[in-house]
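This follows on from our talk about sequence and fold. Please put the record directly below this note.
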Amino acid sequence: MTPVALTIAGSDSSGGAGIQADLKSFAALGVYGASAITALTAQNTTGVSGIHPVPASFVTAQMDAVFSDLKVDAVKIGMVAQAETIAAIADGLKRWVPRHIVLDPVMVATSGDRLLAAEAVDALRTKLFPLASLIMPNLPEAAALLNEPVASNEADVARQGRRLLAMGCRAVLVKGGHGHGADSIDYLIDGERSIALAAPRIATSNTHGTGCSLSSAIAAGLAKGEAMETAVRNAKAWITAAIAAADRFTVGHGHGPVHHFHKYY
C-alpha cells in the first residue's frame, strides 16, 4: 500500500513553509501527501502581509473528503490560526481516529509574524494536545505554552517537556534550533525517557519552513511504519541536510527556503 500523510495547515504563497513545504517533504520522503488548508497567507521570505482564515466548516469538509476516500496513515497539523478551526480539527480527528498525529504548534513565523491568535492558545492545549502522538514546539513556543521563560539549559528543557507531556500528548520534541552553541539539540521526551538528538548548527539564513518540514518528515516516517524515535532521528538527519543545502537556492530577499529535494538535485 502507498503510505499516505495528510497535512492540516496554512498555505504559504511563497512556497517555503506551510502546506507547500509539507507536501514537498512528503514527496521527498516517498509518501503521498493530501492537504486540508486552514488559512491562506500572503507571505514571502521577508514576512507575512495578510492572513485569511478558512471557515471552520470548510476545514471539516476538506478533512472528511480526504479521510472518506484515502487511507491516511499519519496526520501533520501546523498552522491552525483560530479557536473555531481547532475545534473543527479536533472533532474531525475524533471522528476518523488516525493512528499517528504530529502537531507542530505554529505560533510565530520565521519572520516573527504571529500565526496563532492569542485567544486560541488554550484551545490548542486542551483540544489538540490530548489527541497528539507527538507535539514539537521550539524553545520559545514551549515557554509561551507554559507561560515560562525560555529554557536555557538541558534540565529546564526536560522539565518543560514533562509539563507539556502532562497535557495529554504521548511524546514531546522540544526543538533546539533557537538555542546557541555548535550543535542544535532537540529533546525527545516521552513517559519513560528524555533523548538528546544533536546535529551541527548550520550557519545560514535560509531556514524558512524548517519546523513545517521537520514535522512533515516525522509524519512521513510514521506513515511508512517507523517507530517514533526512528522517525524523529531520520527526519532530523534529513532536515539537517536540507538546511545544509539551502544556500544552493537563490530565492527571495529574506529567509529563503530549505532544499527539500537535496538528494535529487
